Amino acid sequence: MKALVYHGPGRTGWEEVPDPVVVDPTDAVVRIDTTTICGTDLHILKGDVPAVTDGRILGHEGVGTVLEVGDSVRTVSPGDRVIISCISACGRCTFCREGNPSHCLAAEGAAGIGWVLGHLIDGTQAEMVRVPFADTSLYSLPDGVPDASAVLLSDIFPTGFEIGVQYGRVQPGDTVAVVGAGPVGLAAIATAGLQGAAQVVAIDLDDNRLQLARTVGATAAVSSADDGWADRVRALTDGQGVDVAVEAVGIPATFAMCTRMVRPGGSVANIGVHGAPVQLDLQDLWIQNITITMGLVNTTSLPMLLKLVAQGRLPAEAFVTHRFSLDDIGSAYETFGDAARTHAVKVLISR
Fold first, then answer.
1. What is the separation, in whole angstroms, between the first and last Cα of the chain?
2. Which domains, and CATH codes, for the chain?
3. Residue of 318, 340, 342, 337 lying closest to 41 (CA atoms)
4. Which residues pair with 5 in a beta bridge?
5. What pLDDT band is residue 201 in, cutting at 50, 70 and 90?
6. What is the rounded CA–CA span in Å between residue 160 and residue 227?
7. Is the pLDDT of residue 288 over 90?
8. How far apart, in whole angstroms, are the C-alpha atoms of residue 319 and residue 337?
9. Other CB atoms closer than 10 Å to residue 291's CB: what's the count?
């Protein structure tokens, strides 16, 4: 088969590689019908994730068709159409049983890390992929849910909801500000209403993304290019600050924006993947009684979000701005990596 193979920072190739096979009785081999590119993949290409080594097949999101299963697999069968979770969960260890499979203790990849696809084992940007723990890492797709919507449930929608909305402790009536209207930030915007947010404020430099944010759930959009952005946000909250500030970029400046605008007693939920240290001004923040959270997605919300997508209650397909074939995955990376020019949000890559 062919796959996108990583060869160090800034270097990949669409190459012929051996077909995946069932190794353990809990495995499945899945033909990739649709995959996509995550911001984390761009971090890998920049060298921010040194655990990804030369020769690794990239990608941790996908929708596909089961080709083969191991002897112990019970919930999926060859021919089934499935979502591949970005988290591979054994379902039996302490962390999995506690609802924290992002730190699965199984030895696949490395004990204590549930994100293994495209990280510690070969991933989904390929014609086929071996998925460990198929019973707890694959989700059968109902008829009528298109690939373009389903693939966004592999990672970004669960990440936006779990790490942004749930970790941020959004309550009915809250004002939520999301800094960064990229794919994951937009997912937080689209799902904040599930917890009853009264106002959802999108903050970004890109006017096109702010327009999209309004279509998927934002009640207000603020350009951070304007010097008065903080005053505009405060004006929406009678000067008190937002209840929940969600950081969805992954740079020090945007984290500082969140700590600046959150009200006393509020929450800062960090989604962004940071590649550099961030200063935490505890000498100013300790007296504000704020809560700061962060984390790796568990995808435990995927079944619930899938039900909402199946009923047309979440605007998942609106996130897809560009479509490519697998053989043209290099162009997909160029387009996604130059989003400021191309206005790419989520690129769909299909067989």
1. 12
2. 2-155+298-350 (3.90.180.10), 157-294 (3.40.50.720)
3. 337
4. 13, 57
5. very high
6. 27
7. yes
8. 16
9. 15
- 3-state DSSP call for residue 320? strand
Number of alpha carbons in the 13 Å side-chain half-sphere of residue 88: 30
State how far the Cα of 44 lies from the Cα of 32, in Å rounded to an integer: 21
> String of b and e for 132-160 (b: at least 16 CB within 10 Å)?
bbbbbbbbebeeebebbbbbbbbbbbbbb
The encoded tokens of residue 25 equal 């009785």
Residue 91 has pLDDT above 90, yes or no: yes
How is residue 281 written in tokens?
A: 């001004």
For residues 315 and 140, give the distance between their C-alpha atoms in angstroms, rounded to a whole number. Answer: 20
User: 97 — phi, psi (to 5°)?
Assistant: -70, -25
Q: Which two tokens stand for residue 221?
A: 């959009």
The Cα 312–Cα 306 span in angstroms is 10
Q: What's the predicted TM-score (pTM) here?
A: 0.96
215: its two tokens: 């279509």
Euclidean distance between CA atoms 276 and 249, whole angstroms: 12
Separation between Cα atoms, residue 144 and residue 156, nearest integer Å: 21
Dihedral sign computed on CA atoms, order 99, 104, 106, 109 = positive
280 close to 270: Cβ distance less than 8 angstroms? no
Type of residue numbered 344: A
Strand partners, 95: none
Alpha-carbon distance 175 to 243, whole Å? 5
Residue with tokens 């030369």: 54
Q: What is the pLDDT of residues 169-184, one digit of tens each?
A: 999 999 999 999 999 9
Measure the CA–CA gap between 67 and 152, rounded to whole angstroms: 22
